[in-house]
Amino acid sequence: MNGGTESSAAYSFMGSLQRAESPRPDGHVCGAALIAPQWMVTAGHCVKNEAGVLAGYPHGWKVRIGSTSVSSGGEVVEVDKFIQRPGDLQGNDIALLKLKTPAKSRPIKIAAGKPAEKTPVRILGWGMTCDKLEPKCFPDHLREADTVVQAAAPCEDVGIRETEICVGSLDGKIAPTNMDSGGPAIVRAGDDWALVGAVSGGNPGQPGVYTAVPAFRSWMNDVMAAKQPTLEGAVDLGDCSGALVKANAAKPSDPALLLTNGHCVTGDRPAPKSAVVDRAEKQEVTVLDHAGKPKATAATTKLIYATMTGTDVALYQLDKTYAQLASKGAKVFKLAATGPREADPIDLIAGGLRKSWTCAVGGVVPELREDGHVLRNAIRYTEDCVPDSGASGAPLINPHTGLVVGIHNTTNQQGGVCTENNPCEVDNEGHMSVHKARRYGQQTAGIVPCLTAGSRIDLSLPKCTLTKPAS
After folding, report:
1. Do 205 and 171 meet the contact criterion of CB atoms below 8 Å apart?
2. Higher pLDDT, 86 or 294
3. Please, which pLDDT band fits residue 197 given cuts at 50, 70 and 90?
4. Quick one: average pLDDT of 135-152?
5. Is the pLDDT of residue 149 over 80?
6. Residue 326 backbone dihedrals phi, psi, to 5 degrees
7. Of 183, 208, 226, 298, which sits with the fewest C-beta atoms within 10 Å of its C-beta?
8. Which residues have a Cβ under 8 Å from the Cβ of 434 and sit 6 or more positions away?
């Protein structure tokens, strides 16, 4: 940190994020602030990793909390998971750290809103005190400085967004430096402190740019308060799972549609590079309530579409209309027109297993190969998403919108290479990789432009890109 003095007392919420790859002997890389017993907030760029994922489970990361010293005192807690907010780092440079065990230290409250210009603030950090990567530039003692929020203009050289604030002296003599990243800017709240910012960046000789933490309150609350999804609307399809879905233009009198995997059909599976349309197939269908008990029953009459190329989906027409199922209280989902992004939350509800999982998108795989089939833009889950065998066909639901964004379809079970139940990944450069126990889903947005009136599918529509039957 430029300017300021050594802190005379510890701040219970102040943390040092420490990683093995730090150039410092003490392992410090960034500051962080404890906002709940098991959660800390830091900068998004502080959780960069070799895999390039926005959410994951790091090895060897830890935080020292509640000490003026970066190397002793306070408490040391291991980091269980990191979640970076999706989007451009500029304007979204924020991440959450979930701790393996709750910290004993007292968290800081988040301020009610973004502070106005000229608001007095205090900044904290163990950032470098000179420009060389040498021990003399790595302070062990926490530094603090009192300054103010500036207008946006002094920080415009590095770009400043509505979700950021400009903090420090105009000449940069009081400002964050390298390795202050993620550290807090705090304001007085009665006899206590409130968190208003986390260091994002800046230029020498200027104030620093801080992410305005209150601007991300809803996102943080959503991440920290993720709840186990209910089974309402999940469908038990024997050895597979599914969900009732409909197009936006569907009428109550239309026959209901059931979405599941292409590999869950009862007849011959769709061949590679092909699809199946309008084939008579009968399966019993049970729609569940929130507790996993039967809510309504139906039967499939026709497989209107199925493929395992590009995506792994099947759509069945049922013997009951949307109105008839609604009269029994059965839940019907709408399909999202766009796919999920990395780090987006997803709920996976498997009716066939009577189980659900709270998950997140770990990434989008350009190409997934399995047993001769090629799947595009597959959804890779984060490591904590471990649906059991038998969850095939379970819908992936965005918990904020309630829309189906994908469908669970496969796991690399034995570490095999591109064989059945052992999919392999291929990146945009053509490099193949195998990840044993990694689980995947498929996007369903491509179905939306192909649905027509009367619960039918029209593969000739201009925007329909689903795989067509082989000629």
Report:
1. yes
2. 294
3. very high
4. 95
5. yes
6. -65, -35
7. 226
8. 412, 415, 416, 417, 422, 424, 425
The per-residue pLDDT for 146 is 97
* H/E segment holding residue 136: none
- Same fold across 5-223 and 234-457: yes
Q: Which of 171, 132, 119 shows the shortest CA–CA distance to 3?
A: 171
Distance, in Å, from the CA atom of 167 to the CA atom of 2, rounded to the nearest integer, reads 12
Report the Cα–Cα distance between both ends of the chain, in Å, rounded.
68
Where does residue 50 fall: left (phi above 0), alpha (psi -120 to 50 degrees), or beta otherwise?
alpha
* DSSP per-residue codes, 375-394: EEEEEEEPTT--PPTT-TT-
Which residue in 333, 293, 301 sits closest to 317, CA to CA?
301
pLDDT of 304 > 90? The answer is yes
Residue 212 has phi, psi (to 5 degrees) of -80, 100
Question: Could you tell me which residues come within 8 angstroms of residue 147 by beta carbon, excluding any fewer than 6 positions away?
Answer: 3, 120, 121, 122, 123, 167, 168, 169, 174, 175, 207
Q: Which amino acid is at 90?
A: Q
Class of domain 234-457: mainly beta
Q: Does domain 5-223 have CATH number 2.40.10.10?
A: yes
Is residue 259 a contact partner of residue 315, using CB atoms and an 8 Å limit? yes
R_g (Cα) of the chain, nearest Å = 26
| Helix H or strand E segment including 219 | helix 217-224
Sorted by where each begins, the domain ranges of the chain are 5-223, 234-457
Exposure string for 207-223, b = 16+ CB within 10 A, e = fewer: bbbbbbbbbbeeebeeb
Whether 227 has a pLDDT exceeding 80, the answer reads no
DSSP SS3 for 47? helix
What is d(CA 410, CA 140) in angstroms, rounded to the nearest whole number? 49
Q: Is 70 exposed, middle or buried (0-12, 13-18, 19+ CB in 10 A)?
A: buried
Tell me: the pLDDT tens digits for 354-408? Answer: 999 988 898 899 999 999 999 999 999 987 788 998 899 999 999 989 999 999 9
Q: What is the pLDDT of residue 226?
A: 73
Cβ atoms within 10 Å of 366's Cβ, excluding its own: 15
Pairing of strands 208-212, 234-237: unpaired
262 — pLDDT class (breaks 50, 70, 90):
very high
